[in-house]
Amino acid sequence: MFELVVKRRFHLEQYRAGPFANEREQYLTHLWQEGRSQSRLEFLNNLLLKVASRIDLAGDRKFTPQELVALAEEWSRETDKPTRNPHWRHALKADFLFVASSWLRFLGLIANPESPGPFAQQLEEFLKYLKEERGFAETTLNNRRRSLKLFFHWLSKRDASLAAIKPTDITAFFFSRSQSWKRVTISFHVQSLRSFFRFAGIRGWCMENIARTIEAPRLYTYENLPQGPRWSDVQRLIESMCGNIPVQIRNRAVVLLLAVYGFRIGEVCRLRLEDIDWETERIHLQRPKQRKLQEYPHCQRSR
Question: Which class for 236: exposed (0-12), middle (13-18), buried (19 or more C-beta within 10 A)?
Answer without folding.
Answer: exposed
